[in-house]
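Worked problem 6 (solution included).
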Amino acid sequence: MAIKLADIESAQARLRGMVLHTPLVYSHTLSRLNGREVYLKLENLQTTGSFKLRGAMNRLTLFKERGEGDKVVAASAGNHGQGVAYAATVRGIPAAIIMPRGASISKQMACQGYGATVILHGQDLSQALEKAKELAAAGYVFIHPYDDPEVIAGQGTLGLEILADLPEVDAVVLPIGGGGLAAGVSLALKGRKPQVQVYGVQTLQVPSLQAALAHGGPIPVPARPTLADGIQVPLVGNWTFPILKELLTELALVSEREIAQTLLFLLEGKKILAEGAGAAATAGFQGPLQGRDLGPKVVLVVSGGNIDIPLLERVVPRALLERGRLLNLRVALSDRPGSLGGLTTLLGEVGANILHLFHDRLARELPLDFTRVEINLETRGLEHSQEVLRALEAAGYQVEEKV
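Solution. The predicted structure is:
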C-alpha cells in the first residue's frame, strides 16, 4: 500500500492531545544573515525531546486498537526508543528497547525512566536491529524506527503543523537518517502544497541516502562516529527511499565541524539546546545550501534536543576554539616578583578574560630562572585573538605554544 495524505491527516487526529504542537519561531539572526524569513520548528521541545514520539505514538495507538500483541520491541540510538518507551507506557504495553553499546547514556536512562527494559547490543543501529528482530521471533512485535508506514504517517504530522502555522512556507530543511521524518513531512507538504521545496541534510560520516540515490536503491554504508547520532543510520528504508527519491528537492551533506558550530550557534544565539541531528538542518542551511533559491520563507527543523551533557561540555569549547573565542597559550616568564602580575595586567588591558591559569615553576626544560604559565583566555573572536598575540609579542613575551 502507498502512504497517502489521508493517512497523515488521520494520524494527526489520532495524536491530538497526546503529542505537542511544537512552536515555530522566527529567527531574527538567521533571517538577517540570509536575506529571507527563516523559522525554526522546535521539535526539541516535543515530549521525550524529539519528533520520534509522533511516529511511535501513532503506531502503538493502532497496535493497541487492533490487539496485535501484548509486548513490543524497538531498536534505537535513543530518540525512537524514548518515543516507543513513552508511548508504550501510555498505552499500557510492555516494551524492550535495543540500543547500540555506544548509545548516549542520557538516552539510555530516559528510556528506562519511561518504563522500558533497555538491552545494549552491537556497535551501531543495524546490529541493534538484528537483535530486535530476534526478540520479534520470540513473541515481541517489532516497531521499526523509520521503515513503517504508520510511523512515517505519524512523523508527517510535523509537516501539517508547519503548514498550519506558516501557510506561505516556500521551503523546509530537515535532517535525514533512515528517512522516516523526511518521507512523512514531504508527503504532508507536497500533498497540501505541491510547490513547497523539501531539502534533506545528512552527515558526511553516514551518507546513506546519497549512496542509495547513486545505487538506485537502499545500500548500507559504514556507520562512522558522528555528533549526529540520531541520524547515524547506515541504511535508508525500503518505504522511505522511493518517497524521498520522488519528492526531495536536494540532499546536502554536512561535516562534523559544521554540526558542532551550529550547536554552539543555536545554544548561544537562540538559547536552543539541540542534539547533533537536531542541528543538522540549520548546519545544512548555513553551509552547503547557501546560495540556493529556497524562496522568501524557509523552515529549519530542529528535530531533537537529547544531547549528553558531557558531550556538550566537549563540543562547546572546541567550537569556541575554532571561532577564536578561546585561546590557549603557554608563556615563558622570568622568575622574579611582578612577572606574572605584569602578564595578567597586559591581558586585561587588551580585553582578554582569563578563564584558567596554571603556573609551572618545575618544568625541567626551562632555565632555573624561568617559569611557565599556561593560560586559557576568552576573547571576542579570531581578530581579537590575533590582537592579544601581537600585544604579547610586542611586550617581549615568549609565547611557546598556541593550542
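Discussion: The chain has three domains: 5-50+149-318, 53-143, 324-402.
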